[in-house]
Specification:
Elements (H helix, E strand, L loop, with lengths): L8 H10 L7 H15 L9 H17 L2 H4 L5 H10 L1 H16 L17 H8 L5 H8 L9 H21 L3
Helix pairs in contact: 2-3, 2-9, 3-9, 6-9, 7-9
């Protein structure tokens, strides 16, 4: 994943004029940092690998989600940030995989649309921020139709998206 340490005010203004950013907030700034090298700067001619493709999809999805005032309004609480930092990436990623598989992995999950709490775990907040909270949001934002169980590949992509959002929030709010 490409990272840039900071953006200048003029760069942010150019991105606002291009329509990439409407109202800067932590999600916008993280999405811009992640995709800066792939979306704005000219790319070097290199072969695109699966990892590059996945990073690009995550970057583009975070930018699309940041245009929604509802999705862009989510941030981790101080307690959730401390929890995520204390458990580490591997544990939170395992939790994300288990929670996504258990709550939205089925073709027709129980209580669909109401199964994901808004707080209580960093993954819950990230699910709402990344539109992976219910099959309706997954269908609308990620074009994965209801009525079919999530494949391992689809689940991996959604887990990667959730983890990228959590990492972005942690980076935006240093300890």
């Amino acid at each position: 994943m490409h990272k840039v340490s900071s953006l200048s005010v003029s760069t942010l203004l150019r991105l606002r004029m291009m329509g990439v950013v409407r109202r800067p907030n932590s999600l916008h700034l993280y999405a811009i940092r992640v995709c800066w090298c792939t979306a704005v700067e000219p790319k070097l001619e290199t072969m695109q690998t699966e990892g590059d493709s996945r990073d690009s999809w995550i970057s583009q999805t975070l930018i699309r989600l940041s245009a929604s005032s509802f999705r862009a309004g989510f941030v981790l609480s101080a307690h959730d940030r401390a929890y995520a930092r204390s458990k580490g990436r591997a544990t939170i990623e395992r939790h994300a995989r288990e929670l996504l598989r258990g709550r939205v992995g089925d073709a027709w999950p129980a209580k669909d649309g109401r199964q994901t709490p808004f707080r209580g775990h960093p993954v819950f907040t990230a699910q709402h921020a990344t539109a992976t909270c219910c099959r309706g949001c997954i269908e609308k934002w990620h074009h994965i139709p209801r009525g079919t169980e999530l494949s391992d590949e689809q689940l991996d992509r959604l887990v990667d998206l959730v983890m990228a959002w959590i990492e972005g929030d942690l980076a935006s709010h240093p300890a």
